[in-house]
């Protein structure tokens, strides 16, 4: 039988090295790094002399500047807005990444200022409203509004874009 040998249990040095590789390869938040390290400890086990402390390691990385939750929040919210997602969807993504409210102020301001452009990108990508080839029937209209709502836009914004005639020049109010 040719099976792979199981990886040895983690210790302090191996956990630190694993965390360094993770932050070097991926943009991550403190919360995401802690979740990653906990998962690795669960998978491989712990063989260190002291109990595992992923929170302390993540805090040390924050202090060293390897992790910047506020910068991650701005980057993530900008990326989602460029894909056409609204404020609610951005909020859900930041909460899932473990971003605290204090680190979200600049990201929330950016999301609010880009709300119109995000809705326009979403409408263009989904060919809704002014980007549709023909006016939609009532059933298509409901589906388009539901798509806007799932993307995190509010109902008023969704209605405004969905009810626009094909080819209409939309102006932010």
Task: Give a brief rundown of this model.
With 173 residues, the chain is mainly α. 61% of the residues lie in helices and 0% in strands. The chain is elongated, with a radius of gyration of 22 Å.
Largest sheet, strands/sense/barrel: none
Rg on CA atoms, Å: 22 Å
Overall mean pLDDT stands at: 94
The SSE order reads HHHHHHHHH
The total strand number stands at 0
Helix content bin: 55-70%
What percent of residues are in strands?
Answer: under 5%
Distance between the termini: 69 Å
Extract low-pLDDT stretches: none
The geometry reads as elongated
The number of helices is: 9
Structural class: mainly alpha
Describe this structure in words.
This protein starts with 11 loop residues before the first helix and ends in an 11-residue tail after the last helix. With 173 residues, it is mainly α. The chain has 9 helices and no strands.
């Amino acid at each position: 039988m040719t099976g792979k040998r199981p990886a040895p249990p983690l210790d302090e040095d191996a956990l630190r090295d694993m965390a360094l590789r993770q932050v070097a390869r991926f943009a991550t938040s403190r919360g995401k790094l802690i979740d990653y390290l906990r998962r690795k400890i669960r998978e491989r086990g712990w063989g260190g002399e002291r109990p595992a402390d992923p929170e302390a390691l993540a805090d040390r990385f924050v202090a060293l500047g390897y992790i910047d939750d506020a910068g991650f929040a701005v980057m993530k919210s900008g990326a989602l807005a460029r894909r056409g997602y609204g404020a609610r969807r951005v909020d859900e993504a930041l909460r899932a990444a473990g971003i605290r409210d204090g680190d979200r102020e600049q990201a929330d301001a950016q999301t609010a200022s880009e709300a119109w452009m995000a809705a326009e990108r979403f409408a263009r990508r989904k060919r809704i409203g002014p980007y549709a080839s023909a006016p939609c029937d009532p059933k298509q209209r409901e589906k388009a509004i539901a798509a806007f709502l799932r993307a995190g836009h509010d109902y008023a914004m969704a209605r405004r874009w969905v009810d626009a005639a094909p080819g209409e020049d939309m102006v932010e109010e």
